[in-house]
Amino acid sequence: MLEVLQGLIQQAGQSAVVQNNEVPNEHNEGVMGEVMQGLLGGLTNHANSQGGVGSLLGLLGGGNSQAGGSSLLSNPIVASIAQNVMGNIMSKFGLSSSAASGVVGNMLPQVLGGLINKTNDPNDSSIDMGSIMGVLSGGKTQGIDFSNILSQGMGAMADGKLDMNDLINIATGSSNQNQSSGGGGIMGSILGGLFGKK
User: Fold this and answer.
1) Would the pLDDT of 179 be above 60?
2) In Å, what is the CA distance from 137 to each residue of 46, 60, 112, 140, 145?
3) Residue 31 in contact with residue 23, Cβ under 8 Å?
4) Is 84 exposed, middle or buried (0-12, 13-18, 19+ CB in 10 A)?
5) 3-state secondary structure at position 24
6) How is residue 198 annotated by DSSP?
7) How far is Cα 20 from Cα 116, in angstroms, rounded to an integer?
8) Does residue 102 register a pLDDT over 50?
9) What whole-number distance in Å separates Cα of residue 73 and Cα of residue 81?
10) Residue 81 CA, distance from chain mean position
11) pTM of the full predicted structure?
């Protein structure tokens, strides 16, 4: 995931940073690095927050129909990351508010949109939801089939009610002790809980 993200950052940074007269050339690499670090840190914090996994899967799973557009900035996760990155760029590199806003407003939707598109492109094997969530969770979600989870409950999980503990339970998968009375194992229990059927 990190190599893919780095490539997207470099690509988006050409016009938003390198060719931007408001960003001094000596700060080009630092500013792009700050955007990458802020994006990665923000997604990681959200993945490990209570109830954050569901909304993160909704975002990265293509639940945002305008993925890649500036409308991504209206997503609460992305907006929070954008604010943090803007503040860091302004304080570390002395950029004006308008310059920092321009850099983040151009780069963040382009990078995140590229990540979402690559993740959901069946013909692109460079990255998938499992590798993203593995990095963001610090390896806690290794072994979870996210494509299966997404196909069974994307709409329900986009409201943020699925948390890291649920995913860890799926990964460790003691289905015999997690069987619901209606059958379906742990996934049935989770989705039943999301729909209010316990």
Assistant:
1) no
2) 10, 14, 18, 5, 14
3) yes
4) middle
5) coil
6) -
7) 25
8) yes
9) 9
10) 10
11) 0.70
Structure confidence by residue, pLDDT tens digits, 107-152: 999 999 999 898 888 888 888 877 887 777 776 655 565 555 554 4
Angle value at C-alpha 88, between 82 and 92, nearest 5 degrees? 150
Give the residue carrying structure tokens 């860091």: 88
Locate the domains of the chain by residue range: 2-136, 153-194
pLDDT at position 168: 52
Rounded CA-CA distance 190/198 in Å is 9
Please provide the average confidence, as pLDDT, over all residues in the chain: 75
Nearest CA to 147 among 195, 197, 198, 187? 187
Distance CA 103, CA 179 (A): 49
pLDDT at 97: 95
Residue 60 pLDDT > 90: no
Query: Looking at beta carbons, which pairs linking 92-101 to residues 24 or more positions away fall under 8 Å?
Result: 92/30, 92/34, 93/23, 93/24, 93/27, 93/30, 93/31, 93/34, 95/22, 95/23, 95/27, 95/31, 96/22, 98/22, 99/20, 99/22, 99/23
Task: Inform me whether the pLDDT recorded for 81 exceeds 70.
Answer: yes
